[in-house]
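2024-03-11 09:14:02 INFO receiving multi-entity request
2024-03-11 09:14:02 INFO entity count = two
2024-03-11 09:14:03 INFO echoing inputs for audit
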Amino acid sequence: MFQALANPQRFMDFSRWAAPLVGIIAVILIAIGLWLSFAVPEDYQMGDTVRMVFIHVPAAYMAMFCYACLGGASFMGLVFRHSLADAAGRACAPLGAGFTFLALITGSLWGKPMWGTWWVWDARMTSVLVLLLLYIGYMALQAAIDDEVKAARAASILALVGLINLPIIKFSVDWWNTLHQPASVFRADGPTMPAVYLWPLALMALGYMALFGSLWMVRVRSEVWRKRANGLALQAAG
Amino acid sequence: MTMLDLDPGKYGAFLWPAFAISALVIGWMVVDSLLSARRWRKEVQRLEALRSDMKDPSRP
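2024-03-11 09:21:47 INFO inference complete, emitting structure
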């Protein structure tokens, strides 16, 4: 399937119906997730701020997932020179930057009432800030170099180097003494979070994932059209 | 039907801005993606129409 969709025309045919369908699924999942977010009881320690978990954690998951996709697309572009790989990477970056920004802002708004501070330079928060800078650097590099092939190559190398940040983010709370709490969902001994909070969290995380999938397809379509328009403009000029 | 708890009390000053900013950023992602796709699709259509006009000598 991956090989088939690497063909731009096949991708355009597939995404024409898949993007809106996945978008509708995202809206349904997020709507139910939001409803449940305010239907669950407040936490005995965190009070009503526990509802932050349903927007902060999915945003943080997606920040890392988008970067993994960006790294994968960059690898495919550099090694196999797939025609859609650059478009796939370009489509990931602004969405990933948006989710990373949300993870940082919602985390800060959660940190103030719980920890008494908006920000500390602990390993988890600093590594997520580095992730945001990597997204911005990728987009800036793409925009700064006129030759699109050279721009794609330079940005892909940056994206691949930045992949080292993903395990640092994930394990920062285990490797260093951080203010940020350790993992409470994806753990070897199972989630420590009460089941009543896991359902809305799972729905919101799936909703964010579906939203990314839909918007990613829309943005790849946009990239395909942009390249076609640039080609047509060159033909008209020549 | 389950009652919604929409009164976060003293935490409202933190909770509502977090949800509002999330809605704004996600809204920006949706609008920017759709507008960009529409812009480039229209540009392709315009250039293809221009090219077919140039290829057809019978047109004035």
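2024-03-11 09:21:48 INFO post-check: Chain B is about 75% helix and 0% strand.
2024-03-11 09:21:48 INFO post-check: The helical segments of chain B are 12-55.
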